[in-house]
Write a structure and sequence with these properties.
This protein has 4 helices and 6 strands, in the order E-E-E-E-H-E-H-H-H-E. With about 130 residues, it is of the alpha+beta class.
Length: about 130
Amino acid sequence: MGLDQYAYFVAREKAIDDTNSKRVIYRSEDYTWRKSIPISRWMFRLFKKKTGEEDRRRFNCCPLRLEKDDILSLKKDIETGKIVKDAKFYLPENYNYTGYDKEQDIRFCEYALAAIEDNLVVYYEEWW
């Protein structure tokens, strides 16, 4: 068991609301993470902001719609290191958020922004 995280893209007409969609993949490249605590904590804070829900169990397997402003905010927090500072309590003492993980998270933001420009809707979901 562990933390599996996904982002996927659906056609705008298949998007229902912030936490629901008809799961239809329009690009073969879903985006995945494995045990990314900074991304998980950041997305849960966004989930709480959008839904008012405080129970983390409600976030498990619940799609979260990411708007352009959400992704721009995520990208900024990645670039400035805020994403790690906000998750520090949950990370190992020697955690290093540079190199590959950071590059992949920025690449996701760029990919998601391009998908939005292509009139797709971006969802994030995690399972643990």
